Amino acid sequence: MDDVPSTLSQARIAQSLVKAAIAKHNDRYENVFLKAVAAGAMLSFGGLLSEVLSAGASGLTQSNPGIVKVLGGFVFPVGLVMIVLQGFELLTSNMMTFPMAVIKKEIPWWSLPLNWVIVLFGNLVGSLFTAAILVHYSAIVSTEPYISYIQTFALHKAADPHWHQIFLRGIGCNWLVSVAIWQATGARETISKIFAIWIPIWIFVACGFDHVVANMFSVPLGIMFGADLTVAAYIRKSLIAAFLGNVVGALIVALPATYFYLLDCDADGLRAAENGTPTTENFTIDTQAVTTVGDSYMKRELVMKWCRLFSEMPYMSYIDP
Question: Which of 7, 41, 143, 191 is deepest in the core (most CB within 10 A)?
């Protein structure tokens, strides 16, 4: 008997993501919101760890700033790993899955903006709770060099770049985040899921791309610590630009995946027949031959052939991201 592959096929991954979007569409709104709150907090923990490492490595930053960016990016993915393994709601991953489900007409079009709005505010609540209660008021980083770094980092994210630069950085960010979710969905066991998530997220953080939910923690935290930035300026320049860029980045993965793997969706079984995969649709038994042929050997051969068919059918499972 052949071993079960360690990853799902690309078509099966696409189908699993659509199935996940359907499940989220059918979930109760308060569940979606609370899961989004938890996701905002989990991602903020990853952001906090990255800032603690980067701020505490001021000497290394002077001599080799690139290494500090790589190290800060390396620890950040713990947030998304916790989100995926616990099944929480992250806006940027839903930016990929919901358009796929809408295009396939598995969910109504209005479910997409409704889910995005609920998850957006849930992620925001979780991020602000972590920034204000668990970080600012707890005073865990209320000393130098952390205060200066948090202020500078917020300005670097929301004040220094132009609007179009944040937008373009948002595209790069969610392209990589969507790849991470795609790869994690294809992995069948936990360690592979973690590794599949880690690499793309490490890249986007180390390169300085903009994640709308991650910025919901880092930028407000900088404002709380006295960064020269207003909430209105953050929303107008950073949040909106990063949000729109993240949407485009997700569609770069979602639209080709829908075209490649979901438009014909196995062509009602004919695709499997072309590939030589046995299916119940393209295999039939001539029952008349069984009843008319008196040779018991022929009967036994037909029954064994039917049993082999089922033993060779591909393993069917769906793994929600």
Answer: 41
